[in-house]
């Protein structure tokens, strides 16, 4: 990770709530999908965001991308507030900040051949001749490890791994500074996962990319990310260096996640916290600590006082007893 004075992406107290309405269209409550998240990502690093399905990872990413408008809070990219930009100004940011969806096949138009999908971003965002576009597309396709013959294929004619490579090629044509990867190895065979992860590393070095890596696969996150943020029910509960958190997790939820990772031989996490039950409904968030209804360490204070992120052994933890 290159160390600079300012982060490339800074999220400050970000909130994204969705209204719940009855059959008459009247609002009856809120789904608190993202509920006060603060993060900073520095140029050249890979930050992992982990948590169970429904914890708010994808909503956070889509709010950063402008797909959802923040309910509150700030999003700063390269020092510029982008959370509430008009559509025309937001388009200027899009080339530098790109998103790879969990299902790459769904992000590619099924009516278009690969060549059309790769040319389209350049037509919208770059003033290049057709010959210049063809040279750029050829170079990017080679960078993601696909032959030119794939340009004449439709998305349904590609394997899952090939679709991910095409999705990566499509965003790399714009030479972005940051890429948000949403469950990028989901549904892939282990051998294909390994090749895709290697591709991510190679592309990061070749194109000077910064990654935000959303995943529930802790083994993948450990291999890819220098730092990780653990998310539970719309908030960050632990944030720090990957090696330190895997070696000595401080938050009970982090310990539960790591204890659930299957291992064949080797050392397990020393504190075996069984993670039981389902996360609470984000429409009805528990008072105090959000994790207290599933936490083996919960005490009376946990029901009345919400813990804030504080410094503990070189990382930030939101727990009264960390």
Can you describe what's shown?
This protein has 322 residues and is an alpha/beta fold. Helices cover 31% and strands 23% of the residues. It contains ten helices and twelve strands. The chain has an eight-stranded mixed β-sheet with strand order 6-7-8-3-9-10-12-11, sandwiched between helices. Strand 7, helix 6 (190-207) and strand 8 (210-215) form a beta-alpha-beta unit. Helix 3 runs parallel beside helix 5 and helix 4 crosses helix 5.
Describe the secondary structure blueprint for this structure.
Layout: E1 9-21, E2 27-41, E3 46-50, H1 57-65, E4 72-77, E5 80-81, H2 87-94, E6 97-100, H3 114-125, H4 130-143, H5 160-172, E7 178-182, H6 190-207, E8 210-215, H7 218-224, E9 227-232, E10 235-241, H8 242-247, H9 252-259, H10 300-304, E11 310-312, E12 315-317
Helix pairs in contact: 3-5, 4-5, 5-6
Structural class: alpha/beta
Contiguous uncertain segments of 5+ residues: none
Walk across the major sheet and give the strand order: 6-7-8-3-9-10-12-11
Give the strand tally.
12
Beta fraction: 15-25%
Helix amount, in percent?
25-40%
Please give the alpha-carbon distance between the first and last residues.
28 Å
Largest sheet: 8 strands, mixed
Rg result: 21 Å
From the spread of the alpha carbons, the general shape counts as globular
Summarize model confidence as the mean pLDDT.
89
Which sequence of SSEs, written as H and E, runs from N to C?
Answer: EEEHEEHEHHHEHEHEEHHHEE
Number of helices: 10
């Amino acid at each position: 990770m290159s160390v600079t004075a300012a982060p490339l992406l800074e999220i400050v107290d970000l909130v994204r709530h969705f209204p719940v309405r009855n059959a008459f269209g009247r609002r009856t409550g809120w789904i608190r999908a993202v509920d006060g998240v603060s993060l900073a990502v520095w140029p050249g690093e890979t930050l992992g965001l982990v948590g169970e399905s429904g914890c708010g990872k994808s909503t956070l990413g889509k709010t950063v991308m402008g797909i959802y408008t923040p309910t509150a809070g700030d999003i700063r990219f390269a020092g510029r507030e982008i959370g509430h930009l008009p559509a025309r100004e937001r388009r200027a940011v899009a080339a530098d900040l790109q998103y790879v969806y969990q299902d790459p096949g769904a992000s590619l138009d099924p009516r278009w051949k690969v060549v059309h999908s790769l040319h389209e971003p350049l037509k919208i965002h770059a003033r290049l001749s057709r010959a210049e576009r063809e040279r750029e597309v050829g170079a990017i396709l080679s960078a993601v490890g696909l032959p030119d013959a794939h340009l004449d294929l439709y998305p349904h004619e590609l394997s899952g791994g090939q679709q991910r490579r095409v999705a990566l090629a499509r965003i790399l044509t714009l030479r972005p500074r940051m890429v948000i990867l949403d469950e990028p190895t989901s549904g892939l065979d282990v051998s294909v996962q390994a090749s895709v992860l290697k591709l991510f590393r190679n592309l990061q070095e070749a194109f000077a990319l910064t990654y935000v890596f959303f995943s529930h696969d802790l083994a993948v996150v450990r291999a890819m990310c220098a730092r990780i943020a653990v998310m539970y029910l719309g908030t960050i509960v632990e944030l720090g260096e990957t090696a330190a958190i895997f070696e000595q997790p401080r938050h009970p939820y982090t310990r539960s996640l790591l204890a659930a990772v299957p291992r064949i031989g080797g050392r397990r996490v020393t504190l075996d916290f069984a993670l039981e039950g389902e996360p609470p409904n984000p429409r009805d968030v528990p008072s105090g600590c959000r994790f207290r209804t599933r936490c083996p360490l919960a005490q009376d204070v946990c029901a009345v006082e919400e813990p804030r992120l504080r410094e503990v052994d070189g990382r930030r933890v939101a727990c009264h007893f960390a």
